[in-house]
Amino acid sequence: MKWSKWLVVLACGWLLSGCGYNEFQRLDEQTKAAWSEVLNQYQRRAELVPNIVATVKGETSFEQETLTKVIEARAKATSIQVTPETLNNPEAFKKFQEAQGSLGQALSRLMVVSEQYPNLKANQAFSDLRVQLEGTENRIAVARGRYIQSVQAYNVLARSFPSNLTAMVFSYPVKPNFAVENEAAMAQPPVVDFNKK
User: Residue 112: CA atoms inside 13 Å, Cβ hemisphere, count?
Assistant: First the structure.
């Protein structure tokens, strides 16, 4: 009788060691840390925007519409409340991603338009802010890449047997990942016409 209890305990221990519970904990924490770095870099970008806008406003003839779009995109991106549950909610994650994408597009447009203003291009403060923004965009790309890798490792564990059983029992859903905006348009090859003038 005594030996049968030990055999049950050993059998349970052996089964649980392959269930992946601890691996889920490790990968979930890794994903959260990677996500925190993404948020950190987005916050850094959002904090640069008021300085860029203030510098650009000094150029009196600058396109007001472009500036307004940047301000609105920043307001929208910073108004979205991000919680740990955002990582497990595909709809909230998509909404956050769209807001950040809009801010990135508005800032890109601002930088393109600013090329048409010689006084602004010569402004050292604007030049410094532009370099900081470019560096931040690079940091965002790196942080997003690390997050994508973390989510991939977590999702592989959540979908693989036998750890998928642990995922079902303990409610570890597959996490949403960053998606490429306008994926269908990117699949189309570019049209090159050398006859256009």
Answer: 8
